[in-house]
Structures are given as C-alpha cells and as structure tokens.
UniProtKB/TrEMBL annotation:
Alphabetically ordered keywords of this record: FAD, Flavoprotein, Oxidoreductase
Record-linked InterPro entries: FAD-bd_oxidored_4_C, FAD-bd_PCMH, FAD-bd_PCMH-like_sf, FAD-bd_PCMH_sub1, FAD-bd_PCMH_sub2, FAD-linked_Oxase-like_C, FAD-oxidored/transferase_4, Oxid_FAD_bind_N
GO biological process: respiratory electron transport chain
Listed cofactors: FAD
GO molecular function terms noted in the UniProt entry: FAD binding; oxidoreductase activity
Keyword Oxidoreductase listed: yes
UniProt domain FAD-binding PCMH-type: residue ranges: 51-236
Source species of the chain: Gordonia lacunae
Chain residue ranges for the region called Disordered: 1-18
Coiled-coil region list: none
Family: Belongs to the FAD-binding oxidoreductase/transferase type 4 family.
Name of the protein: FAD-binding oxidoreductase
Amino acid sequence: DSDSRRVDPGPTPPAGIDDALTALRQIVGETNVLTDPDAMAGFLTDWTGRYRGAADAVVRPRTTDEVSRVVAECARSGVRICVQGGNTGLVGGSVPPARDGSTNALIVLSTVRMTDIGDVDTVGRCVGAQAGATVGAIDDRAGRSGLAFGIDLASRASATAGGVVSTNAGGTRMIRRGNARSQILGIEAVLADGSVLRRWTSLVKDNVGYDLPSLLAGSEGTLAVITRVLFTLVAPPAVATVAVAAVERVENAVELLGAASSAGLTVEAAELMTEAGVALVADHGHRRPTTAPGPFYVLVELSGTGDIESATTELLGATDGVIDAVLEPAPARALWAGREGHTEAIARSSSTPVVKLDISVPIRALPEAFAELSRVGVDDRFPCRPILFGHIGDGNIHVNLLDVPPEHATEVTESVFGIVTANGGSISAEHGIGRAKVAWTHLGRDATDLATMRTIKAALDPRGLLNPGVLFG
Ligand code: 2HG
Ligand code: ZN
C-alpha cells in the first residue's frame, strides 16, 4: 500500500514517449490523449484517495479497432498500459503505479468512451456491451425487454462491463446469480500485441477447447484489454420482498437464510450489517432500518410464488433472536441504501486511510470468524474502529478498519488474514488482488498454482506491459 500511496508527479517523462504520443493522437484523435496534469488527475487516483500513481498520458479510444491500434503502438514503443473502467475498484487495480524509475513510459487506457450497448436478444437472453458501459445502463437496457442483468453492486452507476468482468466482481446478486464470470457468454479482447481475441457466441454449450472468456474474467487487466462482453441476462422475479431484521447474533442471520430456503423462498440477496455500521450510515443521512437497534442486522430479499410478504413475516416470527424487523416490497431502495451506503460513509469517517479487507470464510465458520474479526484492533496494541458488513449468504465479509495508524496497516492486515486462513477462508472474496493484496497471494494459492499463473502471464504478455504491478509483484 505504502508504495502506491506515494505521489510522484514525475516531471520528466521517459525518453521516447513523444513519438508514441504522436502516433496515439493519430489513432484516437488529439482531444482523446490527455497529458495536462489537471485533466489527468481523476484517472491517476482511486475515488477513496488511497491509491495514486503517475502516467505520461490518458488515452481514450472509442472502438475495439482503436484499442487494438493503441495497444499495438504501445507494444512497438514499449509503453506500459494501465487499463481503467469506472475506477470504482477498492484494491488499486485500476490506477497506475507511482513512477518507479522504469525507463518505460505508461499510459492509462480509459474505456470511458466505449459505452455502446447492443440490442437485447430476448430469445437467447443476452446482450453485448462495450467495456465502458455501466452496470446500471446494461440493467436498464435489459429491463426494457423484461429481463435483468445478473450483476448488481452499489457502484452500479459507474462500475463498467469491462471492470466487473476483469475483476470477476461478485456484488449483491451473487448468491442467486453467481459472480461476473458466470454471466459471460462471449468476450472480445485485445491481446498485448494488438491482436483481437474474439469468442462471441450465444451458444450456451460450446466445448471447443479452453474457455478463454473465463480465463480473462478475474485476470485484472493483466492478460488482455477487454473491449466487449456478451452477457447472459436473467428473468427478474415477479414479486420479491425486502426485509431487514435486527438480530441478537450472527447465527440468527445464518439460520434465517437456511429457514427461508426450507420454506420454499428464493434468497435473491442476503446482507449482514452491525450496529456500528448502521449508526455510521445513519449519521450520513440514511434512515435506520428498524426502530429497535440490534447488535446485528440482516437484510434479505426473498422471492417465490404466492404471498411472499406473509411467508416472510412468518419466517421472521419463527427465527430465533429477531429483535425487530421491517418489510417492504422490492426494490425497497431506502432499505438497500442503508446497506449500500456503508462504503462511502466509512470512506468519509476515518482519520487515516481505511484498511479494507474483503474476505470470505465457509458459511459454517462465519459466526465464529465474524466474532474473531470484530475483535481485531479493539483490545490490541493499536486501537482502531472495525466496521464489518457483507454478503452473508456467500460467507463474504468486508472488514473495514478505520483510524488505523498507517505504520500498523500491514500488521493489522496480517492479523485479519491469520484469522481468515485459520478458518479455511480467502483473503480476497470479490474485490480481487489489485496492488493492495499482491504480497499475500501465497495465502490463497500454492506454489504450483502461482507458477501456472505466471506462465500464462508470460505467454500472453511476455514484456509485462499490461497492468504492471497488478496481481503479480
Ligand atoms: C459492497 O459490498 C462492496 O458494498 C464494497 O463490495 C465493500 O467497502 C467495502 O468494503
Ligand atoms: Zn461487496
């Protein structure tokens, strides 16, 4: 982290960049190669302000052909490329590294102008979108045809198709629809030499060789630049209810999910919050979900046939530890806003850069792991404010540690990872590795696994020009 936080404006661009910039201007047009520091600033830092880097230019292509020519020019001139979509990631994967003395220049390739969305295929239930189309725009387009996008997340207005696929994002519908990888039918991407890889088929069964779209999903821009994605679409539930219950214990929330499935209800989403998080979000203008507070809160969105509201009320009545509950028909935006408002409220409330750890544990280990994680930093040598929340149905907890003295950030991270690995969990559930977690990939992958990833990286990007410093050290 400390590396990427160092700001180095790097006043002298490495030699040779001028020729490359002239060529890039010819490809994308003068106005789409930004070199003015003010114009570039927003592309060089993430929205939480925790990661900052330097670049010689920001290049904004419009089409796959332009991306292909930009990448070919970068390959010719040895210019490194940081690929950027909505820049909503939380692990520093979409901002360039700080200037590191490398002789190679670096551009940010922004997909901000690549926002086309094709016509919805209502029979094949799919839609093609350019990499820069937002999750919200794709869902709107699907909605006009009576369908929905299977990916949803708090940053839907900015997060992009290319970003969610390259990070294999999870989000709030993951429990029902799977992660981004499982929403892909086809992909188009530009390889490190500028050639275009295209696997574009609405066939749901196609076993001719390696599944390259699956490989690119989660590759964090290190293997290719994703330019277009063919997404599968889903039929939204006819009726759904959102309930938030204040509960005594994390176990009560886990039991509620099991009981919902046993009662024939479909769990569309399941989120866990704590009183500390709910109180903070309320301080930032959102309403409290229940009248009586609870140490914990569970938000569920349930669908099914028949009278879902009565079935949900009955379910809540039969669940142990429910202190208070509210119910609203979906989409229940205000209830969801109280959950989705966590990240922003947290970002605004910490006196030091927030230590954000996105971990998962097996569901059966969740109550115990949650309790252990809640104690990190509280009665330790370096007090901090933990706020934990997350996608409980996926065993995914977002451990946010506020007010951590920066010199203790690594130590506190390692205490969290110790608890996670002891419980058989993952150090990165849905946000990816980016720059933030590079030092710890060995906790999730064995030596052969990591070596195989490096072999693939070396085969597809032998000169290491794509997203340097992301995923690999
Ligand atoms: C969410 O679930 C996001 O809202 C962000 O994954 C999580 O801020 C976080 O830690
Ligand atoms: Zn999340």
